[in-house]
Design brief:
By secondary structure, the chain is an alpha/beta fold. The chain has one domain: 3-Layer(aba) Sandwich (Rossmann fold). It is built from six helices and seven strands; from the N terminus they run βαβαβαβαβαββα. A seven-stranded mixed sheet has the order 3-2-1-4-5-6-7. Bound molecules: glycinamide ribonucleotide. Glycinamide ribonucleotide binds next to α1, β5 and α6.
Length: about 190
């Protein structure tokens, strides 16, 4: 049995897609979803799917949550819109097992402060002719770990931050779970 846990800070559309995808895969289980935000939409989305959630704060993040993860011993830790930096203890406990999705073609539009709307505003301001998504391993620097997968979509001058966000989410929902599945199969 392969197992995954998901970390998310926001609406949780990717977390939900991942859960729905693996409901149909008998040998992969989404054990739990973790969030740093007690008001995050992800909690309701995930609970309605029957997957347990845990809300944590700065205090429990560094040790208690890590200790719990060590016990769960997931095959992969998946960051799906999770905005806090991953502490060194996590990286040491799960080497090459923590992956993140980022809403741009890294290394473009990555780094601290580059998330959600900030990314899409910058892409529109720079009149990019294409954008996309990046799934990558997590290391000690924001958005700098080895790239696992990228997918692209083209943009036109009529695109707005909203339409870029929509195109990007469409790519995320199409590819993220399948990429996770492939990684699990190759572990
Ligand atoms: C996704 O677009 C993801 O790429 C982005 O947060 C969004 C979460 O959406 N992640 C980052 O910006 C990380 N730097 P969701 O909550 O609907 O899944």
């Amino acid at each position: 049995m392969n197992t995954i846990v998901v970390f998310a800070s926001g609406s949780g559309s990717n977390a939900e897609k991942i859960i729905s995808y693996f409901e149909k895969v008998s040998h992969v289980e989404v054990l739990k979803v973790y969030t740093n935000n007690s008001k995050a939409g992800v909690i309701a989305r995930v609970s309605s799917k029957g997957v347990p959630t845990r809300v944590f704060d700065r205090e429990t993040y560094e040790k208690e949550v890590l200790d719990e993860l060590k016990k769960l011993n997931p095959s992969l830790v998946v960051l799906a819109g999770f905005l806090w930096k991953i502490p060194q203890g996590y990286l040491s406990a799960f080497p090459s097992k923590i992956i993140n999705i980022h809403p741009s073609l890294l290394p473009k539009y990555g780094g601290k402060g580059m998330y959600g709307g900030h990314v899409f505003d910058a892409i529109v301001a720079n009149k990019e002719s294409e954008t996309g998504i990046t799934i990558h391993y997590v290391n000690e620097h924001y958005d700098e770990g080895a790239i696992i997968f990228q997918a692209k979509t083209s943009l036109s001058t009529s695109d707005t931050a909203e339409s870029v966000a929509e195109k990007t989410h469409r790519l995320e929902h199409k590819h993220f779970a399948a990429v996770i599945h492939k990684l699990l199969e190759n572990q």
